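[Discussion] Sanity-checking designs against the backbone

I'm trying to build intuition for which residues belong where. Below is a structure token string of 147 positions. I'd appreciate it if someone posts a full sequence so I can compare it with mine line by line.
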């Protein structure tokens, strides 16, 4: 089983990465809202708003999963709950898509980076979430057959 020290390091690094992306998204939106006021373009603005919703959805799910893992590491909840369907990162087609129209090159560089980085993090955490859930399920099944 993974040690608490390793889990804590993994958690801290992933939490910092997620928080960094949330901060980057906030900064992008502040700058973009000023630009949008000076150069309105309804189609571009709608596309960017949709993509920022995608980034936010990814990061929100990741943060919820991380907070459940933190609660487990602190002894506040059982591993079974931390790995439950409630917190598991699912294969959400909206979050797994690269872009709504495949024209990412038209987006500002900070937004393209947010899309790429948040998708990579989402996929990593999704895989980890699924593995942990499978491990807990297997462990529960094994303990039932032993009893």
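Best answer:
Here's mine. Compare freely.
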């Amino acid at each position: 089983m993974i040690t608490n020290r390793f889990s804590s390091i993994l958690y801290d690094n992933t939490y910092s990465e997620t928080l960094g992306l949330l901060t980057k998204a906030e900064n992008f939106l502040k700058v973009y809202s000023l630009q949008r006021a000076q150069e309105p373009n309804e189609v571009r603005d709608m596309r960017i708003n949709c993509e920022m919703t995608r980034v936010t959805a990814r990061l929100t799910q990741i943060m919820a999963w991380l907070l459940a893992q933190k609660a487990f590491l602190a002894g506040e909840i059982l591993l079974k709950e931390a790995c439950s369907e409630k917190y598991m990162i699912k294969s959400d087609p909206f979050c797994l898509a690269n872009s709504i129209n495949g024209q990412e090159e038209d987006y500002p560089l900070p937004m393209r980076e947010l899309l790429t980085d948040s998708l990579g993090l989402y996929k990593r955490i999704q895989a980890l979430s699924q593995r942990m859930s499978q491990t807990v399920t297997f462990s529960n099944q094994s303990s039932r057959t032993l009893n």
